[in-house]
Specification:
This protein has 291 residues and is an all-alpha fold. It has helices at 2-30, 37-53, 59-82, 93-118, 142-164, 166-176, 178-183, 188-213, 222-235, 240-260, 266-280; strands at residues 132-135, 138-141. Helices cover 73% and strands 3% of the residues.
Length: 291
């Protein structure tokens, strides 16, 4: 029983980790809390669903196509809505409030747009993979194993991008010191736009995988945005390892707490874990304490 719940928690945590990765990338590079992130995740799931059900595209072909489409959409949204209000000082309260209001506005626009196009009824998104793997007392469908595999693949690709490429080094430079990076000739706007593209692709993957396990509907973005915010704080603001570990830990806490206590209180367990982390280590698992 315990082994089965741990396996289930790792599957859920994998999706949470993917969702939180995109969220933390935006915060790390642009110091923006993107409240529309959950709706981008939802749109990614609907894009994949449309390719699979309407155009009859194989899920594993549809997913990267949808990720590319959402990446482009994220860049367009950045340049048309966020960039104009990010031109001021990031320490300006007025500028921060403008950014918050813009992302909240985007949340409602994207949500209502999705309802107009796809409606409110939940839809089923199939991978086309059947069968189960039984190891001892653990029963795991191949579909859930694929979810974990895709998470590992995308996380590996992100680490390669961040630590083995020039644009990854530039991205980390912007995250650490935006003014200093500008001084040495880095184009901060282009790099932040690239971060939004990567973030959108991660959100699309998380939403699509979530849709294969449960359903795709217009409200599916509200849960992941809240969990992503919790995970980013839990793991450490702007920390990629923190987002991965935090996502897995929160997935395990929810699953084990729900199985052994009550699923009605699974969100309570998440916030209790967050409160405990803030009390014991305010900077988060991988965060750096302020000097």
């Amino acid at each position: 029983m315990l082994a089965q719940q741990i396996a289930n928690g790792l599957v859920l945590g994998s999706i949470y980790a993917l969702s939180a990765l995109g969220f933390t990338l935006i915060f790390g590079a642009a110091r923006v809390v993107n409240f529309a992130y959950g709706e981008v995740l939802m749109l990614g799931a609907f894009f994949t669903l449309t390719l699979v059900t309407v155009l009859d595209v194989n899920f594993f072909v549809a997913l990267p196509i949808a990720m590319a489409g959402i990446a482009v959409l994220s860049v367009v949204l950045f340049y048309t809505t966020l960039r104009p209000v990010m031109q001021g000082s990031f320490t300006s309260l007025h500028s921060e409030l403008q950014i918050i209001l813009v992302t909240l506005g985007l949340l409602y626009v994207l949500h209502e747009g999705a309802i107009l196009i796809w409606g409110t009824a939940p839809r089923s998104l199939e991978m086309g993979i059947e069968g189960v793997l039984i190891v001892g007392d653990v029963v795991m469908t191949y579909k859930r194993l694929v979810v974990i595999g895709i998470m590992i693949l995308l996380v590996g690709g992100l680490y390669w991008l961040l630590y083995r490429t020039k644009i990854g080094k530039a991205l980390r430079a912007i995250a650490q010191n935006r003014e200093g990076a500008n001084a040495i000739g880095l184009n901060a706007d282009r790099i932040v736009a690239f971060v939004f593209a990567v973030s959108g692709a991660m959100a699309c993957a998380a939403g699509s995988l979530l849709g294969t396990l449960y359903a795709v509907d217009s409200t599916m973005g509200s849960g992941p945005i809240l969990k992503s915010f919790v995970i980013v704080i839990f793991g450490g603001l702007g920390s990629v390892p923190g987002a991965i570990v935090g996502g897995l830990v929160i997935g395990l806490i929810e699953t084990l707490g729900g199985a052994y206590i009550s699923f009605a209180f699974k969100d309570v367990f998440t916030f209790l874990a967050l409160i405990a982390m803030l009390l014991l280590r305010p900077a988060g698992l991988f965060g750096r304490a302020a000097a």
